[in-house]
Amino acid sequence: MVRTELPFTYCHRKRLKNGVREYWRFRHGDIDTALPGRPGESAFHEKYAELCALEEKRAKKEEKGRQTVDWLIDRYRASAEFHALSGVTQIDYARTLERIRDGMGPERYDCVNRAAVKALRDVWATKPRTAHKIKQMVSALYSWADQEELVPAGFNPAAGLKKIRAKVKPIEIWSDEEIALFLDKCEPFMRTPVLLALYTGQRREDVVQMDWRDVQGDMVRVRQNKTNEPLMIPMHSDLKKHLAPLRCDLGKIVRNCDGETMNANALSSALNRAVAAIPAMPHRTLHGLRYASAGRLEAAGCTVVQITSIIGHRTYQMALKYMRQRKDAESAMARLQKEAS
Hints:
By secondary structure, the protein is an alpha+beta fold.
């Protein structure tokens, strides 16, 4: 192979019976092709000029692509920071990033402003939670770009953009009567996730991930998916009694009626169907069992620190709010009945 002064060209010489023959080629970027003739010949230089023009066009297109939101998203998803996130968080972030890509992917990322982010957020105004996640994800994306020195220091087009306020339907806490009714009427396989949620206070994502290897003696070992916090939770006697005959050496604890494992969405759907199948049962969710768990811990005299170490501060505060309302209502009715007697 012989290199020449012409950029991106080289000559390959092949020895034949009747002498040496030269084969000239052009190679750069995605192009690797033969050139006709040899330097000095018009056909050679015409083809060479054509290929140089194609390569220049490709390079400009590539450089332009490096300035887009598409490129920034791809860089972030390939970053160490993104891969350090939990698997569930990566999936959640990726879904929101694709919505951002759909809305402003071809735009120059250094020209995106607050108005553009607001316009994209408002496309999802009928789904306030999704709209807010878009705003949060844009902010996280540009915070990462700032750290990578891809944008001017402090540049973040989502900064100061307010959250769309939505009417939030409160999560109903399960009463003791509702829990007893459900456990009495539901299919046997549904008792397991309900008792796990009630006596460990964990989210549905954590309940479906519980493995038989996590049940050690009188303890249930949990690593919370959202916080990555490891917990050791003592088992309530009712939960221990329920799990004992189901015990296996390996595998997930929560399974459907066919013995197959369930993800968080499948568990929610199964619970919705089970609740709907009980005529006297009002609609309740698995998250409502976290509130019920907080309520039972508080009623048992546990401290705030003890309760929040298991279920989290926000869940405890919300559960306490609904519990107080219920206790106040019961107290008010008791007073009324006392006056009537």
